[in-house]
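Case 424 in the screening queue. Each case pairs one protein sequence with one candidate compound; here the compound is nicotinamide-adenine-dinucleotide. For every case the pipeline is the same: read the inputs, emit a complex structure as tokens, and attach any notable structural observations.

Predict complex for case 424.
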Amino acid sequence: MTTVEAPASHLRENPYELAKEQLVKVAASMGLEDSLVDVLCACKKAVAVAIPTRMDDGSVEVFEGFRVTHNIARGPSKGGIRYHPDVTLDEVRALSMWMTWKCALMGIPFGGAKGGVVCDPKRLSLRELERMTRRYTTEIINEIGPERDIPAPDVGTNASVMAWIFDTYSMNKGHSVLGVVTGKPLALGGSLGREEATARGALYCVRAALRKQQLELAGARVAVQGFGNVGSYLARFLGEDGATVVALSDSSGGIYNPKGIDVAAAFARKRETGALVGLRGAEAVSNEELLMLDCDVLAPCALEQVLHAGNAGGVKAKIVCEGANGPTTPAADEILEDAGILVLPDILANAGGVVVSYFEWVQGLQEYFWKESEVNAKLNDIVTRAFNETWDAHERRETSMRLAAYGLAVERVAEATTIRGLYP
Ligand code: NAD
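Case 424 output:
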């Protein structure tokens, strides 16, 4: 029997400390009471579980998993599950707090949660992944549920993983429980438009931000880091809207062509070889170089803390669209702001996924499913309203888009917490 331990993390700073720092900064600007800040800084519940899993060769590996609920003042908690070798409890705590703010900013009736398993899904066979997922689900079965806490995909997980979670939970309850998880396959009560929703929401934000700056998407030069669920669809949508996609990357490196990359060819290359590097007509760049390229819009859509004090000064983009959660450290944030670069913060720019997850949950509870055009139109309404509210607060309070977004979100959660009162 072997125990799988986390390798040294890719994180430069403790993300939970950063998330609390952000909250304290926003709370100070709003004059929030210290005791309320203490309540909001803490996670309501954090569960750590051991996940013994039978491997294909007959051996047993014990993975470590987490599920954290940050806050449920506005509704059941909602948040993805990450499978990645660098997952830590504090990373999951930070991600759960950001989910609370994101749901509040979007005005949807959820609190925040997140889950993670320390593993490298690329090194597990399909059967190993299924057995590990089913055991993880069983270990957290008392924490999740349609009225309690509703997981979804995140880095390293997808619709198939959600299907196993749905099935394991339902088998234990004795009937199908559609509302227990979102991001499910369409055949199992998934929502049309969910897979593309995070990227679509980011697209709406980029469009609106360019408009505010009297710029056009057509002809704008964009660089996208990360070619997974968020990055790949965002690159496709931006390209379809007339932008010139000058750079793309995945974990094995990036590709660059100042005249524009054929995004459809990049999809084909990734599908055929598992990587983007080597695409004909594009030169290789590192993930670090991609962030510094001359472009109008930079969209980090991979992992946290890629923009930090050491490299933020080299960013040349006019707009940074945070497709990933937490890609910019607070120190980098200040550097970008001083340089006049508009940062569309994660809780706004990548909220499209949780909005359509909310739609999926509603459709599952009603057992009545909507057309894709209806899903996309409702998504546009919610994200555009949140963008406009954030923009107004950004101008009114003469503050960054991040502080404006956090201000609105924290205000809403603080209000719900105060009105509910402290139990008992
Ligand atoms: P994914 O697993 O589908 O894709 C991640 C991508 O990042 C892959 O292309 C991978 O190769 C690349 N990557 C991994 N390590 C990298 C590195 N060190 N440098 C560059 N690229 C690297 O994940 P995803 O669902 O697209 O999520 C990406 C980010 O977006 C995460 O921060 C996630 O929390 C956030 N997010 C996702 C959703 C969603 O609906 N999937 C919603 C909101 C936010």
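Case 424 observations:
- The two ends are 45 Å apart (CA to CA).
- Residues 197-349 form a domain with the Rossmann fold fold (CATH 3.40.50.720).
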